[in-house]
Task: inverse folding
């Protein structure tokens, strides 16, 4: 679409594309608000994948067997790959990856609250796979139909890989549940710590979500935060029963009238506090990312020098 048309025609074309459920592509004119929203969401998502390598990465050297180590290494590498596709998707909107990384390590852009909690035992690796990747899939499958083409397409591959991650987590937990009493206790204790933070991954309640209405209108988001949170609760309960664990919520019960499980109140003060940087591991996660960025400076310089030489 040529940028020489009057802005109102470009705007009309953009709205009509969304209306017809077609994809917006990098060549298309978009309103500034749409560009900013997409960069914000894609960058936060990319940062989450990259920071999200740390909690599980913590267990690579201490995995209990060669098989578990190989699986965990592959999973953590997948997360790095997801971050890279997403930074590339953000680049199609004019965002510069180095600038996005600067914003992350200087606290100007967010990443998912979930990665600010510690991984205390190996059962946490299983619970992250089961619940955290499970929540990620629930949130991201609808994003495969997001209106921005490069983001929606990246999401297809990411979801396939997340699905493998979820299964490996569930299989790990199943194995531990068939083990000793101590192992079963480790799993239950890890579930108790990760359940509520997993529900927070879906974002604030709809009434307090400033971005949802516009993102739904632009078909960036296909469901609201509360709809997806409910879907996740509903799908997790039979899985917990199959595993033989419980969730730390006395208010969880089937509501036949609604056709959904009711659940207790999420501690939104804790969520806000984590977003402000005061979660148990925020400082450690960002410091680690900053150190990795500084330690990798020579690689980026060498790669640029090599590219310049080849180009000349
Ligand atoms: N943490 O108005 P809304 C993964 C922010 S999965 C931190 O509702 P929106 C896989 C929000 O950005 C995790 N901040 O916002 C993996 C906004 O702040 P802003 C990543 C949060 O965008 C597994 C403000 O609160 N997944 O990495 C959170 O409409 C295992 C108001 O919120 C994605 O990013 C939160 N939980 O909806 C990796 C999915 N929730 O920007 C390794 C794509 C909200 O105005 C290991 N993103 N905020 O300053 C989305 O679907 C949406 O962006 C939401 C938030 C649903 C997260």
Result:
């Amino acid at each position: 679409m040529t940028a020489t048309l009057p802005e109102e025609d470009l705007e009309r074309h953009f709205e009509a594309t969304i209306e017809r459920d077609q994809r917006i592509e990098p060549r298309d004119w978009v309103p500034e608000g749409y560009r900013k929203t997409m960069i914000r969401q894609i960058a936060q998502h990319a940062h989450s994948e990259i920071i999200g390598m740390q909690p599980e990465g913590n267990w690579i050297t201490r995995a209990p067997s060669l098989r578990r180590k190989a699986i965990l290494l592959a999973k953590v590498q997948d997360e790095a790959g997801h971050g890279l596709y997403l930074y590339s998707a953000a680049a199609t909107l004019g965002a510069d990856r180095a600038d996005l990384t600067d914003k992350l390590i200087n606290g100007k852009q967010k990443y998912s609250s979930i990665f600010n909690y510690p991984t205390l035992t190996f059962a946490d690796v299983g619970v992250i796979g089961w619940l955290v990747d499970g929540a990620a899939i629930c949130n991201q499958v609808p994003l495969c139909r997001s209106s921005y083409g490069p983001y929606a397409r990246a999401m297809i591959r990411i979801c396939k890989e997340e699905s493998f991650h979820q299964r490996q987590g569930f299989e790990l937990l199943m194995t531990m549940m068939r083990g000793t009493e101590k192992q079963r206790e480790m799993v239950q204790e890890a579930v108790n710590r990760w359940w509520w933070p997993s529900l927070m991954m879906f974002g604030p309640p709809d009434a307090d979500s400033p971005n949802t209405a516009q993102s739904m209108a632009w078909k960036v988001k296909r469901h609201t935060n509360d709809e997806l949170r409910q879907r996740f609760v509903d799908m997790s309960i039979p899985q917990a029963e199959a595993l033989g664990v419980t969730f730390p919520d006395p208010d969880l019960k089937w509501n036949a009238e609604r056709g959904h499980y009711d659940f207790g109140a999420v501690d939104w003060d804790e969520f806000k506090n984590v977003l402000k940087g005061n979660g148990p591991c925020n400082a450690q996660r960002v410091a680690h990312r900053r150190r990795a960025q500084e330690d990798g400076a020579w690689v980026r310089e060498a790669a640029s020098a090599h590219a310049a030489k080849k180009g000349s």
User: Anything to note?
Assistant: The chain has one domain: 15-306. The pocket of Phenylacetyl coenzyme A is lined by residues 40-41, 44-45, 48-49, 52, 79, 110, 112-113, 128, 132-133, 136, 139-140, 200-204, 209-212, 215, 221, 225, 275 (CB under 6 Å).
